[in-house]
Each structure stands twice: as structure tokens, then as C-alpha cells.
Amino acid sequence: MDGFRREIVGSWAQDKHKRLRHYIDISSAARRKFEGNSSYIELYCGPGRSRIKDQPTLIEGSAVAAGLEGLRRAPFGHLHIGDLDSINTDACRARLAQQQITNVSTYAGRAEETVATIVRGLSKSALHLAFLDPYSIEALPFTVIRRLATVPRMDVLIHVSLMDLQRNVKQLMRSGALSHFAPGWEAHIDTRLRNDQLVLAVFSHWRMLLRELGLKVSDNVERVTGRKNQPLYWLVLAGFHPLANQFWDEVSNTEPQARLPLG
User: Cα separation of 25 and 118, whole Å?
Assistant: First the structure.
């Protein structure tokens, strides 16, 4: 116990972090070429440590896991961590410091606000990796990705809550909230479709929006499921350099979870 907040997460968080660490490991040779001119970005960092639900198992948060993986072979030049709650960012920074990772800046606020501050300070010549892991669809407005995509050499690994979409897609449409996540969906999606078809149509439109930003979006979309095989979220990799997709393909080819069939 270190006196800081912890969050409770499902066991699938370990699977998500495994993929993140693997990507950071595979991309380490590319990062070394930039000689420290690199950054890791998280806008939903949480407190940096979690306990698995109904288990005593403690795990590091994704930002700490990423920082530690970077240390093994090619450390990030700087870490930018944000969260809606400053208690979380303070805890996460402290836990990074416990691992001798001190090249960290913290940002408290909504992701669409903190991303603007972070991007203004990023080097255009550096190599960047952003990990976006929000709790819900509404917490990931497309403006966040659009702002990140203004930075050259930006790779973005995005967690899209499939469970949230499946449960709430029609409500998100009615409330207007879906327009923040996937702008312009109304012109492309027939609302008379079945729920499962709506979910896939929204996801397809959202991926098209990523491509319109100039990002190369991997067709290897990882679908992560829970202990009862219930679908939880998709992991999507998008970046400007073809190597990003090549690295993600290597991650996908070594992990057992199902992929989304894309036609």
C-alpha cells in the first residue's frame, strides 16, 4: 500500500496491457533511432495501479506499464499523462516516480481540453505514441483524435468500447452524443438496421473518419472479450507510417483473441 488511490478493473485489463507492452517492445528499435526524441501520451491514465475485480491481484496501470516497458530497451523521452481527476494524475505520476520514471508531465481535465495543451508542446520531429483508453464512447470525442493527427509521426492505439456501443448505440444516436464520437454518421447509416448492424456501421464510419485524417488504419482490429466470452472492446491501431501497422500485425499474430472480420 502506498497511500494512493487504486481502481478496480476486470481481468481483461491484463490482456489490454499485454498488447500495449508488446507494441512498445516491437517498436523499440524505431524509437531508439530518435535518440530520446519520443513521447508517450495517455489522456485517461487513471491512478496508475489497479486491483483485479474479485481477486487480490494488483497490476500497474497502463501508463506505468508503458513506461516500464519503454525502460527495458528504448525509454520514452517524455510521458504526458492526463485524466479528468487530478487525484488520478497525481497518483499516476507518483507511481511512475517509484519506478524512477520522472520525465512526466500531468494534465487534469477533459480529454478534448488536455490534448490541445499536450499537442502544442510536442516536437514535430519526434516519434509519438498515444494510448486512448476511455471508459465509454462519449468520453472519446473525435476532436481528440483529430488533434493528435495534426502531429507528424503520431501512432494512436485506441480502445473502443464495443460493450457500450452494443448496449447504447440507439440512445447515443437519439441524444446526439454519437455525433461527437463519429461525426456525420447520420448521412451514412440507416437507423432502421438491427442493433448489431448499427454497431458495425458506426464502427466502419468511424474508421473511415480516421482514414480521412490521413491515418493508416490497421485491418487487424483486436476484439477483446471477458471471462464469459462477452465482447468488451476493440483495439484499433492508426498511424502515419506503414511500420506502425506492420508492428501491430506482429502483435495481432501472437495474441489469441479474436479479430473483427472486415469486409
Answer: 24
